[in-house]
Amino acid sequence: MERFKVYRADISWNAKHFDLKGFYRTGHYHWGYEGDFFGFYPEANYGPNIDIYNGEAPFGFELSGKKAFKNFKVAFGPQLWWGANPAFLAKYSRQIGKFDVTGIFHEDLDAQAPAVSSFAVPIPPTRRAALHLKRKLGSVGVELGGIWSNSNRVGEIFQVTRETAEGKIEVFQDETTMDDTWGGKAKLTYASGPFQWYAQGAAHGVLAQGGADYTKTYTGWRLKDSGSGNQVNFLTGFTIGVGNLQIAPNFLWQRPIEDPIPADVSAPGRPRNILDDPFTVRSNRETVAGEILFTYDPTPGTWMYEWNNDMAEDAKFAVSSGFVYRHQPTTQDAAIGILGDGRTIFAFPGAAPAQDLWEAYARIVSKISPDFGFISNLFAGTAQANGSDARLIKRFGGDVRAIYKKTKLTAMAKVNDWGPYDYHRDFNLTFPLQLMVDISTSLAKPSWFELPNSRLGLRYTWRSLDRYSPRYSPATKLNDRGESVPDPTAVGFDNGREWEIQTYLQINIGN
C-alpha cells in the first residue's frame, strides 16, 4: 500500500464567471487583507513539517467570482488548513458608501480524522460568522468588526472557579448561553511621514472563537491578538523612522473572562481542555507584555517583513532585532498531547505554572552579490512546555543559510532547547547541545525556502543527552514488572550523545 502516492498537486480553472483553484499540500494565503478581521481562514504554508508528520494539508478549493459575482469568494474542502475539519467558508465584500464591508461565514461539515501532530489537533465542529467595516479618514484608518461563533455549543456544561471569603478556591458548574457566542473588535491606525501608530481592542465571549491575526501592521511585531474566545484585550504600538532605522515599541494586555482551572484543584474539578469543554484558557492566558523592535533596512523596496523576503531581499546587510517580555501571573488550562503511537490523543493533567518569560531575537539578511548571500536567525530567552511539566528552560541558539552559486549550506546550533518534533515541547524534552550542518548542490540555483528541488547533499546531526532528553540511558533499573528499563536519573554519569550522517539524492519532477 502507498508505494506510489501523489506528493503535492494544484489545479486552476479560469472560467467566465469564476476562477477555481485546487490545492493538495501546496499551501495557500490567508484572507486577512480581504476583510477577514477575525482570522477565520488562516495561512496554510507548512514547509517540511508536512513531510515530518505525513500530513495531508491543506486540501481543498478556493473559488473567486467574476463579473456579477466579483464580490464573492468561497473555500471548501476536507482540510483547508492543518487540523481543520471538513468545512465551507463564504466571503462577500463590497463598498457601501464610504465603507468597505465584508461578511464571512464558516461552517464545519464533519469532524476531522485523528490528529498526527499536537500542533494541529482538530477541535469539535463549529459554526461562525463575522462582519467587518473599514474606512479611511485622511491619515486615520478605522476598522470595526463583530463575531458570532459556536452557536451549536450553546447549552454545554463547563466548570468555573470562584474564591470564597475565606480565600479558598471552589469549583462550580455553569452552562453556555447565546450571549457567550458574541464578540467585537475595533482598530485605529494613523500614519504621517516617519510616524505610524495603531491601537486595537477586542472582547470575545467564551464561545466567540476566532483565529490568530496573520496580518502585519506597519512592522513585524510578535505581540498580536490571538483571536481566541473567552478574553478581552488591548494592543497599541508605534513606529518611527530615523533614516534607514525603524524603532517600534509595542504593548499587549489581555485577560480571560473565565480564569483557568489549576491542576491542584479539588475533585471533581479539573483543568479544561478543547476536546471535553466548550472553551479553554491557552493563548488567551492573562498577559501583560511589551516588546521593542529595531529594523535596519537600506532597501525598503524589499520590505523586511514580507512573506517572501528570504528570496526578495537585495540589501547587502539588513537586520531586524527585537526583545519581548511577558508577565503571566496565572497558569493555563490543559493542552492536548499525542501518545507514542502517533495517533492517540489525551489531555495533560494540567499546565505549566505562572511564569514571566522573555525572548531576544534577531534576523540578519545579507545578499552580497547575485551569486552569494546568507540569512541568519538568532534567539535567546526563557520558555515553558506546552504540557504540564513545570521546568522552565533557558535556551539560546541560531541557524544560518548560505548560498553560493549552486551550493547551499545550512547550519544550526541550539543550547538547552527542545528537539525538532512538537512532542519534545509537549513533554519538555530538551537537549544540552544540538548541532547540524547540511551542504548540498543543485542543478539550478538553490531556493532560500525548503521547497522540492533536485539536489545532492550531505547532512550531519549531533546531540548531547541528559536526564531531560529522550533516549538517555546511562544506567538501567528494574521496573514494577521486573523488566530492565533505562534510568535517566542515575547519578555520577556524563551526558550521552547521538549522531547521524545522511546522504541524500532528491529528484524533483515538475514545473
Structure description:
By secondary structure, the chain is an all-beta fold. Helix content is 3%, strand content 48%. It is built from 3 helices and 27 strands. It has helices at 49-52, 309-312, 422-426; strands at residues 9-14, 18-24, 59-65, 72-79, 87-96, 99-108, 127-137, 140-149, 157-163, 169-175, 182-192, 195-204, 231-242, 245-255, 287-296, 318-327, 336-338, 345-347, 357-369, 372-383, 393-404, 407-418, 430-442, 455-465, 476-478, 484-486, 496-506. Strand 13 (231-242) and strand 14 form a beta hairpin. The protein is globular and about 75 Å long. The relative contact order is 0.07. The mean pLDDT is 92.
How would the blueprint of this fold be written?
Blueprint: E1 9-14, E2 18-24, H1 49-52, E3 59-65, E4 72-79, E5 87-96, E6 99-108, E7 127-137, E8 140-149, E9 157-163, E10 169-175, E11 182-192, E12 195-204, E13 231-242, E14 245-255, E15 287-296, H2 309-312, E16 318-327, E17 336-338, E18 345-347, E19 357-369, E20 372-383, E21 393-404, E22 407-418, H3 422-426, E23 430-442, E24 455-465, E25 476-478, E26 484-486, E27 496-506
Antiparallel strand pairs: 1-2, 2-3, 3-4, 4-5, 5-6, 6-7, 7-8, 8-11, 9-10, 11-12, 12-13, 13-14, 14-15, 15-16, 16-19, 17-18, 19-20, 20-21, 21-22, 22-23, 23-24, 24-27, 25-26
> Assembly state here?
single chain
Tally of individual helices = 3
Mean pLDDT score: 92
| Strand-residue proportion | over 45%
Q: What is the end-to-end distance?
A: 27 Å
Low-confidence stretches: none
Strands, total number: 27
Q: H/E series, N to C?
A: EEHEEEEEEEEEEEEEHEEEEEEEHEEEEE
Biggest β-sheet, characterized? 21 strands, antiparallel
Give Rg in angstroms.
Answer: 24 Å
| Helix fraction by DSSP (H/I, runs of at least 4) | under 10%
- Structure classification: mainly beta
Assign an overall shape.
globular
